[in-house]
Amino acid sequence: MNIIDESGILALSTRLQRLSEQLRKDGALFYKSYGIDFEPKWFPVIYTLYHKEVLSVVEIANEIGYTHPSTISLLKELEKQKLIRSKKDKIDERKRLLQLTAKGQELIEQMKPVWDVMKQALSEIADNQNNLLQAINEAENKIVHQSFLQRALQLKSEEKQ
Question: Most buried by CB count within 10 Å: which residue of 12, 21, 75, 95?
């Protein structure tokens, strides 16, 4: 066990990042094993547009839960790869509407069988005594009601009293 593992809850963010990086790395290698050149970081946008077809930048950011700048960065990469395209909204010229290109749609069709296998493998990983996915949902719901920062500041102010 290393010092990060030993630090327990204090390293929660670090350990979640470590887990995320391992899953992304393995995911990229698994896509590659099917001959698919795909970065797992693109998944939230591609998957969202596959289900919602046409969305604005703000709508995509809200759907995937990323900040506006992070979303813009992903969208630029995907446009460069010609997996998505944007057009101006006819009602609001300032708004960009995004959708999958034909190349993006073809990619989805290639990835569907891969996703089925990934779901099985990830289910095996998450299906443990504490059910990882359920625990993540519960933690995210708590953060929606009161963020980590709000909780820490509250504890700090209570400590001073």
Answer: 75
Q: Residues with Cβ < 8 Å from 79, sequence gap 6 or more?
A: 85, 86
d(CA 160, CA 158): 5
Q: Which two tokens stand for residue 70?
A: 């992070």
Q: Is the pLDDT of residue 66 over 90?
A: yes
Please state, for a pLDDT cut of 90, what percent of the chain lies above it: 66
Beta bridge partners, 96, equal: 88
| pLDDT of amino acid 63 | 94
88 close to 96: Cβ distance less than 8 angstroms: yes
Q: How far is CA 24 from CA 17, 19, 31, 41, 118, in A?
A: 10, 9, 10, 7, 12
As a whole number of angstroms, the distance between CA 114 and CA 118 comes to 6
Edge-to-edge strand list for the sheet holding 84-88: 55-56, 96-100, 84-88
Cα–Cα nearest to 135, from 4, 3, 16, 31:
16
SS3 67: coil
User: How do strand 84-88 and strand 96-100 relate by DSSP bridges?
Assistant: antiparallel
